[in-house]
Specification:
- It is a single chain.
- By secondary structure, this protein is an alpha+beta fold.
- The protein is 40% helix and 19% strand.
- The chain has 18 helices and 16 strands.
């Protein structure tokens, strides 16, 4: 039987990992620059911690972990006979793989609240798991790179995250559009439609607009019990294409009698005013009245980032997030508002690869290969190797005294940009030859030269 891995998971070889680490390192540098502190949480959480936080559809995608030993011990016989999956699951699985990093973060804050200084700025780069149907850009195991501020309801935090996103995508040389909406606006819409009890159904349906189209969204709303009158009132929002000011005016006319809706409009206007006049080199900001984000815990501003390049085979978001006013309240700590964003590293990788935006250095690990001519020359070669490494230059020596062509081929296959050659003549002169594998240019370097500048 041939070995295999589960669908929706992947092995990553050295070539992929070097590029992935380029993404992680780029994001991490910006996180640290903006004052965020690192944490990690376990891969598994108590199932009770995760369930009920992502909506009905999200709960179905949580990977449950069977209890140790005979997990059927103590199972409710009636639930087993009736194939009551929900009740049966609670009896055989107490733990689950984390679905995202935000809910575990809220649990972390509650458990460690006496050790933290608020507002607390955290970043976290770890894998998450979802029992989703694998497809391009959608995996069952993938990495999220999160940054959150918790313990403050100031919109300056949203502004900070917007500027952070722009800086990350600038460094990645990726042009994107940031879509912004507000869940209070969506709550106001549900209120004026006399369907506040169906807000989750409305947001889940609207969130699918890009994927299934306006007609199927309306059909889903009918199935969920919305009246034709309510759907008719909602229709202008689903198809409106004006500028930000015109969209705000449409909202004001529609939500003038909704207190929560007006509060959402006020937050939108404040946030757009804060961003006005700022020069975002790689970030185009738009108000999107149909942006809903399906996660239940969002309560204020919500974000989603999409790639501008229309020619690529990718339509999903590569970053998203939003404001959550009381996620920690679920775990007993009330009044702890937070806001955060999450970069999807795997989707960003796919986009950069398709657009060929990875810089050459992102494919390299070793900077210089020291050629091995044999036992006598290797002593001198090792001296060069150690001096390169002492100057923080990633270098390695070919371990065998193979033919020069074979060693050059190895360097090419590894995309090593430089080769160090030191034969008897160079040893006598206390020098070595540095060969640029791309251009073929060679230059002689003295062992007394400043190694920091040898590649200039």
């Amino acid at each position: 039987m041939k070995p295999s891995i589960p669908k929706g998971t992947r092995d990553f070889g050295p070539a992929e990992m070097v590029k992935r680490n380029y993404i992680f390192d780029t994001i991490k540098v910006v996180f640290k620059k903006y004052g965020f502190l690192p944490i990690e949480t376990p891969s598994m959480e108590q199932l009770s911690t995760l369930m009920g936080k992502y909506g009905e559809e999200g709960d179905k995608l949580i990977f449950k972990i069977l209890n140790s030993g005979n997990y059927l011990d103590g199972v409710d016989e009636t639930a087993y006979s009736n194939k009551d999956v929900k009740k049966l699951t609670l009896g055989i699985a107490e733990k689950a793989l984390r679905y995202d990093l935000t809910v575990p973060f809220a649990r972390f804050v509650v458990m460690h609240q006496n050790e933290l200084s608020f507002p607390f700025r955290r970043y976290q780069i770890q894998p998450v798991w979802r029992a989703d149907k694998p497809q391009k850009g959608r995996y069952r195991e993938f990495y999220q790179c999160d940054a959150d501020v918790i313990g403050s309801d100031s919109l300056l935090n949203e502004l900070d995250l917007i500027e952070l996103m722009n800086e990350v995508f600038s460094l990645l040389n990726l042009n994107v559009t940031l879509l912004i909406n507000n869940r209070k606006v969506l709550a106001g819409i549900a209120e004026v439609l006399s369907a506040s009890d169906k807000m989750i159904d409305i947001t889940v349906a609207i969130d699918k607009l890009d994927k299934i189209g306006i007609d199927k969204v309306k059909e889903e709303l009918r199935v969920k019990g919305l009246t034709e009158e309510a759907i008719e009132k909602l229709s202008p929002l689903l198809s409106f294409t004006g500028n930000t000011a015109e969209k705000v005016e449409l909202l004001k006319s529609m939500l003038c009698n909704s207190e929560i809706g007006c509060k959402g409009i006020e937050e939108i206007e404040t946030l757009f005013a804060l961003t006005a006049g700022l020069n975002f080199s790689h970030l185009n900001i738009q108000l999107d009245l149909t942006l809903a984000r399906g996660l239940n815990y969002y309560t204020g501003a919500i974000f989603e980032v999409k790639v501008n390049e229309p020619a690529i085979n990718f339509t999903g978001s590569i970053c998203g997030g939003g404001r959550y006013d009381d996620l920690t309240g679920i775990f007993g700590l009330k009044g702890m508002s937070g806001v955060g964003i999450s970069f999807g590293a795997d989707r960003i990788y796919d986009v950069l690869e398709e657009l060929k935006l990875f810089p050459a250095e992102a494919s390299q690990s070793t900077k210089a290969l020291v050629v091995n001519f044999g036992e006598a020359e290797s002593v001198y070669a090792l001296t060069i190797l150690r001096k390169l490494r002492a100057h923080n230059i990633a270098a390695e020596i070919y371990p065998d005294a193979a033919k020069l062509k074979k060693q050059f081929t190895y360097a090419d296959n590894r995309t090593i940009p430089y080769v160090v050659i030191a034969g008897s003549d160079e040893i006598t002169a206390n020098t070595f030859v540095l060969k640029n594998m791309s251009s073929g240019e060679q230059k002689t370097i003295s062992m007394n030269d400043d190694f920091k500048n040898i590649f200039n």
